[in-house]
Structure formats: structure tokens, C-alpha cells
Amino acid sequence: VKQMLKTKRILNYVVTSHCLGSGSFATVHLAMDASAYRQVACKSIKRKSRDAIDKVMKEVNILISLDHPNINRVYAANHDSSFLHIFLELCTGGDLFSYIVGHKDSRLCEGETKYIMYQLLKGLKYLHDKLISHRDLKPENILLHSPGPYPRIQIADFGLARPKAYQETFTVCGTVSYLPPEGILALDHKHLGYVGMPADCWSAGIIMYIMLTGCHPFDYEKVPGESEWYSYRPSEDLGDMSSISQTSVRSDRMVKKRIVHGEVEFPENIWHNIPDAEDLCSQLLVYDHPKRATVHAALKSKWFNCELLELEAAYRERIVSG
Ligand code: ATP
Fold it and tell me: What are the catalytic residues?
């Protein structure tokens, strides 16, 4: 009863006190859509400045117009003097980061990686076809619609996404470990153009690499005195993998250096029996962004050729056609 008393009504939604999670900018609570009788997530973001709200609402309205099975739906938004509240499709499976580290050696099998990558690229294709780039793709921003194995995934956390027209502001954003070389250079020199869509493809390549190997291609720790792949400390536990998202300034510098150096290693012991996967991953991690695989090209990869993906496509069609 006490819990129920703490609910709050915003628009058609009843926001409960049950916290689903929080990040650096937002707190997310379980809410009920009173008109559609469904559970949703209410993301409340502390407002920074009163003046910016028109611009923010304009962006939120673009997100509300998006409708794809692999994009976390934004249903509505509302603001008061202190908070912006965004009502989102509820995802009950946690995020991809926690899902990956919950597996032995922090890696997924090829089939499951393929299933997730296919959905990720389909969601990205939908965005890119509308000239929208996400610009902060990382496993923490990919939600599991329901728990795995073989989870349905949704791209979320569009806090930094911008339609192409907005990109002219040259704002550089994203997490260092997932930024492409051109993003790092833009970050350091502040005058280079930063192209959003190829950056998403690069980040997708990093996510694919992590799922298959349990290691980040640039954000790793080398054991001194050893030079083989085995010397890269695999992500055996949460502590190691979590360093991917909680990098110190010093390791940020190392990671940036490795990214702009541009060398990605595909160690034999992991990749030798998955050549089609290696081919796609290396196409996504091409240094020069004009030569990097687009989502369209990536989806045509030889790697995506299995019955499971046909099932996924059929499921998508069913959702889209209602
Ligand atoms: P960041 O710190 O990455 O900028 P943020 O402050 O924007 O993040 P989110 O990561 O979007 O906040 O949300 C915080 C947490 O809330 C997530 O880790 C997740 O656990 C939960 N969450 C977010 N969106 C949903 C959703 N649609 N359904 C269920 N839980 C969600």
C-alpha cells in the first residue's frame, strides 16, 4: 500500500517507485500506461537549463516517430521545471554488457552473436535510412527485450543521437573505447568532421569483436613481457570487463593511441574457424571511414546466412504488419 501511495501520474502514465536502473544522467522507473494497459519504463532526466527544452523536445519528437522492433520505442515525453520524463518500451532482460559478462569467458557462441548482430544491424539500417546516427553504441546501450538465450535486442539510450542536419555542430560524443579513429581525431583536434553513420558501423564491429572473443580490440591490458594474444588478459570477471566502461584517464590515452594507430588483431586461436565472421568484423573495423562497410553492405555479408535469421525476419514482418 505504501508503495502504491508513492506513484505519480504523468500524462496517461502512472509512474511507480520501482526503480529499474539509473545511469549518469537518468533514473528509470517502472510505469503503467493507463490507456493501453501495459507496463512501460519512465526515464527521468534532470533538466540542465530551461532554455534548452524546446530543442530537446524537438529531438524527443524525432525519437517518438521511430518504430522498429530493434529500436527501443519512445512513446511520449513530458517535462516539469526539474525533470524531463520519457516513456519507453519496457525491456526486461537487462543490457547486453551484463548479458555478455554473465557468460563463461565473457563471450557468446557464434550463433548467438550472429543473431544479435543481425538485429543490431537491422535496427541501425532503419536509423541510417532516416539519416539518423546513434553515435554512442556500446553493449550498455543495447537492451534485451526479454531475457536470453538468443535474446531479442533493442538499441536504446538515444541521448546523443542526432539527425544528420544537427551533426554540423561538430559535437563530439560517445565513449572513447567505441569511437572510431576519425572520432578520436575530432576529439583531439576539434576541427575534423565527425561522420556519424560510419562511426556506428565501427562501434558495431567492436561489439561483434567483444561478443566473439570476450575482449575489446583496443581496450585491453597487456601482461608485461608477453607478446602473444594469450597475453591479453581475457575478461574473466566483471572487474576486467567493467574497465571497458570505466576507463581511467591514463588508459583512455592508451586506448585512443591504439585506435588511431589502427591495428586490429584477429588472433588465430579464436578466429581461424569463423572466417566469415572475421571478414565482416574486419570490414566494420576499416580505418578509413569512406571504405568502411555500411549497414547495407554488412547485412549482405556471407556470415548472415542461416535459418534463424529468416525466422527473425518473419517475426519482424509480423510485428510491422501488426
Ligand atoms: P548513461 O550513464 O549510459 O548515459 P543514462 O543516464 O542515460 O545512461 P540509461 O543507461 O539509459 O541512463 O538508463 C539507466 C538504466 O535504466 C539502464 O542501465 C537500465 O538498467 C534501465 N533502463 C533504461 N531503459 C530501460 C527500458 N526501456 N526498460 C527497462 N530498463 C531500462
Answer: 136
| Closest protein CA for atom 11 of ligand 1 | 157
- Would strands 13-22 and 26-33 be described as parallel, antiparallel, or unpaired? antiparallel
- Give the residue, out of 28, 86, 247, with the most ligand 1 atoms within 8 A of its beta carbon, to mutate for a pocket test: 28
> CB within 6 Å of ligand 1 — which residues?
20-26, 28, 41, 43, 72, 88-91, 95, 140, 143, 156-157, 159
pTM summary value = 0.86
Contact 175, 200 (CB under 8 A): no
Backbone angles phi, psi at 128, to 5 degrees: -65, -35
Residue located nearest, by CA, to atom 20 of ligand 1: 21
CA distance 202 to 294: 9
Range with the poorest average pLDDT among 60-74, 235-249, 259-273, 293-307: 235-249
pLDDT tens column, 183-210? 888 877 765 455 689 999 999 999 999 9
Higher pLDDT, 120 or 193: 120
Looking at the chain, list the stretches that DSSP marks H as alpha helix, in order from N- to C-terminal side: 2-5, 53-64, 96-101, 110-129, 181-189, 196-213, 238-242, 249-261, 268-271, 275-284, 295-299, 307-321
**What is the average pLDDT score of the chain?**
82
Q: 265: part of which helix (H) or strand (E)?
A: none
Say how many Å lie between the first and final Cα of the chain, rounded. Answer: 37
ipTM > 0.95 for the complex: yes
